[in-house]
Design brief:
With 318 residues, this protein is an alpha/beta fold. It has a single domain, classed as Aminopeptidase, CATH 3.40.630. Helices cover 27% and strands 18% of the residues. The strands form 5 sheets. It has a 7-stranded mixed β-sheet with strand order 5-9-6-12-15-13-14, sandwiched between helices. The radius of gyration is 18 Å and the shape is globular. The N terminus and C terminus are likely disordered. It binds zinc ion. The site of zinc ion has 6 residues, from loops.
């Protein structure tokens, strides 16, 4: 099945114009008529790209967001041997491998990016001495949610890697938003992804948290009062105008500031393990997680306040 909603899609040209030929972190995305890009303005080439299944067809679409990219490296870590590991590289590698696995299982996949770029095209004003501005990060995150919506994704999975000043800190943690109408699905998705990952990688289980428990410094006065992840949270006029419309979770499988975990994150075998864990989860949980009304009562109360919030030195959290 190429594209169902042709009216919303532009099928890439026959050369794949940079997408079909893209070699994403060692995982070749084959030239195919199945590659398309939802029509959203201002996106990078290779960003917000949809791929049809390579085998079978279950009629569901998974939005896979490789965190950061381009001028935004995310966390910078290193292995014990001193090999630098950038969060943006590892997230793209894992995302690409997960996409391949899901497509082979009959899912359509939409990737927020397939290259080392931001999702939005940056202007000169979006860079400050080579670093991406907070305004651009905000718009980039909003574009990822808009992409998931435009593609009609059933589930959103945002892949990140963690960092902390103490290199001994490690483990996996997953975040979801408890303020959405489909909060119960969000929670289930987050919990299932987290447990699949911990079981497969054998890393410390740091837990599943609501996204208001992230101790992110404020981007702006507006962002500071938002108190949700832009990709997962509810609408907030002027800040999140186009919130994601499907269950979602943000997963942080490893700390790349921990040398042993940086080794796993930068190793193709480790990246594949992460992807396989999540794909196995999908097989056992039978997507989709249909949006459902949720009684939010107790959801937040049941969660302890995030006791490790002080471990977040990052300028941005997404
Ligand atoms: Zn990140």
């Amino acid at each position: 099945m190429v594209v169902v909603a042709l009216v919303f899609y532009r099928v890439m040209d026959s050369t794949g114009q940079g997408v079909a030929k893209a070699d994403v972190a060692g995982v070749l995305i084959k030239p195919a008529v199945s590659v398309s890009q939802p029509l959203l303005a201002g996106l990078e080439d290779g960003a917000c790209v949809s791929f049809s299944p390579t085998s079978g067809h279950v009629g569901q679409t998974v939005f896979i967001d490789a965190g950061h990219g381009g001028l935004d490296p995310g966390v910078v870590g290193a292995t014990a041997a001193g090999h630098q590991v950038l969060e943006k590289d590892a997230t793209l590698a894992v995302a690409s491998r997960l996409a391949a696995l899901l497509r082979a299982d009959g899912y359509s996949v939409v990737m927020s990016r397939t290259r080392d770029t931001t999702v939005i095209k940056l202007a000169a004003a979006d860079s400050n001495y080579g670093a991406i501005t907070s305004s651009a990060v905000h718009r980039d995150l909003a574009a990822r949610a808009a992409c998931a919506n435009a593609a009609g994704a059933n589930v959103l999975v945002s892949i990140h890697l963690d960092g902390f000043s103490d290199p001994s800190v490690g483990g996996a943690e997953t975040f979801y938003d408890a303020a959405r109408p489909f909060a119960a699905s969000n929670h289930r998705l987050a919990a299932d992804l987290q447990s699949a990952l911990v079981a497969r990688l054998g890393v410390a289980d740091r837990g599943v948290f609501t996204d208001d428990q992230l101790a992110a410094p404020t981007l702006t006065a507006t962002g500071g009062s938002y108190n949700h992840l832009i990709e997962l949270g509810p609408q907030s006029p002027g800040w999140v105008d186009n919130p994601s419309q499907m269950p979602g979770a943000l997963v942080e499988p490893l700390f790349i500031t921990n040398p042993a975990e940086a080794q796993i994150a930068s190793d193709p075998a480790g990246q594949q393990k992460i992807a396989e864990a999540w794909c196995a989860w999908q097989e056992s949980n039978l997507l989709p997680l249909a949006p459902q009304a949720s009684a939010l009562s107790g959801e937040l109360q049941a969660r302890e306040r995030f006791s490790l919030g002080e471990h977040r030195p990052l300028p941005w959290r997404s």
